[in-house]
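Bumping my old thread because nobody answered last time. Still need a sequence for this structure:
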């Protein structure tokens, strides 16, 4: 007589139940990743704006024909190579905030273009 090997129906059902429980536990963590990605994107753009402002300041200070003038929080976007991404905007109320020459303002903010509650701050360094 030959002995047959294989899984019983109960074993297969138990594996499916365990996989279902694991999926139910892991799914909320993957759903929350979208908001984390949006926050990281806004923070990344804020970092790029701070860096662009600093590099622009140094270039323009060394040679007044290089770089762009930064007089408001909104004009920092002109120093950003490639321009602003469509998913992030400079907060409209803050964009017109004046930045005096040779001073830095760290209260400039950017926000997600869809969810305005996601914001991040950047530093603008003024130069004429």
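Sorry it took so long. Here it is:
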């Amino acid at each position: 007589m030959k002995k047959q090997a294989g899984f019983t129906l109960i074993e297969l059902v138990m594996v499916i139940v365990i996989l279902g429980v694991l999926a139910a536990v892991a799914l909320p963590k993957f759903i929350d990743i979208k908001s984390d990605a949006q926050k990281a994107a806004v923070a990344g753009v804020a970092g790029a704006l701070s860096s662009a402002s600093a590099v622009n300041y140094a270039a323009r200070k060394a040679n007044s024909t290089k770089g762009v003038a930064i007089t408001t929080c909104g004009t920092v976007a002109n120093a950003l190579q490639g321009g602003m991404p469509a998913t992030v905007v400079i907060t409209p109320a803050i964009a017109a905030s004046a930045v005096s020459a040779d001073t830095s303002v760290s209260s400039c903010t950017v926000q997600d273009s869809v969810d305005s509650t996601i914001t991040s701050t950047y530093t603008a360094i003024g130069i004429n």
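The chain has three helices and three strands. Let me know if any region looks off to you.
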